[in-house]
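Page 37, top half.
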Amino acid sequence: MAMNQTGEPGAGFAQRVDAATLARAQRGDMQAFANLYTLFGRPCFNLALRILGNRAQAEDLVQEVFLKMIGTIRGYRGDAPFGSWLKRLTVNAIIDQLRGQRHDADIDSEVVELPAVDSGNTAAAVDAWSLLQRLPPRARAVLLLHEFEGYTHAELATVFGQSESYSKSILARALKRLSDLVVTNPETDPWPSRN
């Protein structure tokens, strides 16, 4: 679990960063950058891994995001919390990587490494993760960003450079695909019966 600067547990991108650390980072202080990496490296990695489904790609993406952050932090004005700003950089890097992929197949051809899960129901969490990995990368991105990260369809339209109907359509197809996968193979249903 990440700790914030006061030693209290942090909450991913919602962690607070003190003004002095930000000011030092904006002046190019490498220790301040190291502090920011300590606070936000894991949340960036977790988000990238959930969407990309590949540990090596997620690790590379985190490095890319932090290098970009070093080059752009002087432009951070504090209009939004720092974590939100960094999350936006991370999402944009993920979307750029997805755009660069040449295929958008129904099922990813890569072998997916399943991350450790914190849930009390480990089998269900792994099954849910396995199902998500069977979605095309863009569908997985839209679903995770909308359902778990709270992005609106308008925000997704901006991020993907598409219309709102694009993300609505992708989300509907992703949910249908997940539903079909669970119905086809009910013993892997990670969601308990809702009776």
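Page 37, bottom half:
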Amino acid sequence: MKIVWGITGSGDLLPETFEVMSELSKTGDFEVTAILSKAAVKVVKWYRLWDKLSSIAGKVLLEEDANTPFIVGALQTGKFNCFIVAPATANTVAKIVNGIADTIITNAVAQAHKANLDIYILPVDQKPGTTTTILPSGKTLELKMRDVDVENTSKLRKMKGIHTLEKPEEIKTVVNRYR
């Protein structure tokens, strides 16, 4: 089994997602190719997760532009079982629901969607109110969700062919479907 793991520039849910992916990778049941947006590179390094990433993913591809490195062809031609974007920033979700494909992640989602590849997205801004996130220092930060971001997540949930996840642990269920 082969999956693509798209990482955006979200710090919220990032450590938790890395824990799940690390746990899953230890089973040896699947190969992970990670694609990181330009913002993701900065955030993964800020959270000191770069070394952990290389132990999870056999390949790590870094965004140069919306189509480089060229991952779309492999997504569209069945070289991967599914595409997991986790965590997904509010910006990424807004672009996806509005058809904007100007980053490596949003372009890959758009093109994989056209080819009917299963896409799973873990948006960070899901419900009105506040959420608590973990900072790189281990301290917590309370964030207030913006209405527009929650509305975009609601639109994402309604998109045919895209499955939304509520928490990182649900990635385990996704991977188990393809085993």
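Margin note: The chain has one domain: 2-178.
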